[in-house]
């Protein structure tokens, strides 16, 4: 298939190591198969634009993998999963993921991909503000959806007490609070500048 997935496991493993991620051969094979499915379906249901096909690995998969060092908790809730980034990639790497996606056709693709890749995950066809409640210990992720402040407002009503959010941002967030930290992502292996931001909600719900 036409995409820039590494031809060897060692090359993919090397890229992931630069992100602090230990990629298994099983996950490598499943991700490659998922990208094949994505390319076949992309033009039919507008999963990704034509220009994104040639950089699925460096732009989309590796940015999704970059979330892994920041993940804690029993369940990952990925908000606005879209074509599967980062939610499906995290699921293919063995995480327990609930993917929340408002577009029905994209949910149908994710369900088919999960079945064909033989991974166990949950796919919820809903906006995040209408979904939930989510299990205690859930950690929320999002990529290219909204700014972190907007995401916190959307997530808060259905989130468990003291929740965390891990998201990608284009610029470092300067703050004197210990509730928000951001870490610069390496180029290479990524093909654009970015940061992973981790927000820890300071409020405890009753």
Sequence-ordered SSE layout with sheet pairings:
Layout: H1 9-17, H2 25-45, H3 56-65, E1 75-79, H4 87-92, E2 97-101, H5 104-117, E3 122-125, E4 138-142, H6 148-155, E5 164-169, E6 180-184, E7 195-200
Task: Characterize the structure shown.
- By secondary structure, the protein is of the alpha/beta class.
- It has one domain: Vaccinia Virus protein VP39 (Rossmann fold, 3-Layer(aba) Sandwich).
- Helix content is 33%, strand content 17%.
- It is built from 6 helices and 7 strands, in the order αααβαβαββαβββ.
- The protein has a 7-stranded mixed sheet with strand order 3-2-1-4-5-7-6, sandwiched between helices.
- Helix 5 links the parallel strand 2 and strand 3.
- Helix 2 (25-45) packs antiparallel against helix 5 (104-117).
- The chain is globular.
- The model has no long low-confidence stretch (mean pLDDT 91).
Topology as a string of helices (H) and strands (E)? HHHEHEHEEHEEE
**CATH-defined topology:** Rossmann fold
CATH top level assignment: Alpha Beta
Spatial arrangement of strands, main beta sheet: 3-2-1-4-5-7-6
Oligomer: single chain
Largest sheet geometry: 7 strands, mixed
What is the count of helical runs? 6
The H-level CATH homologous superfamily, spelled out, is Vaccinia Virus protein VP39
What is the mean predicted local confidence, pLDDT?
Answer: 91
- Runs in which pLDDT lies below 50 for 5 or more consecutive residues are none
Helical fraction: 25-40%
The total count of strands amounts to: 7
Integer tally of domains: 1
Structural class label: alpha/beta
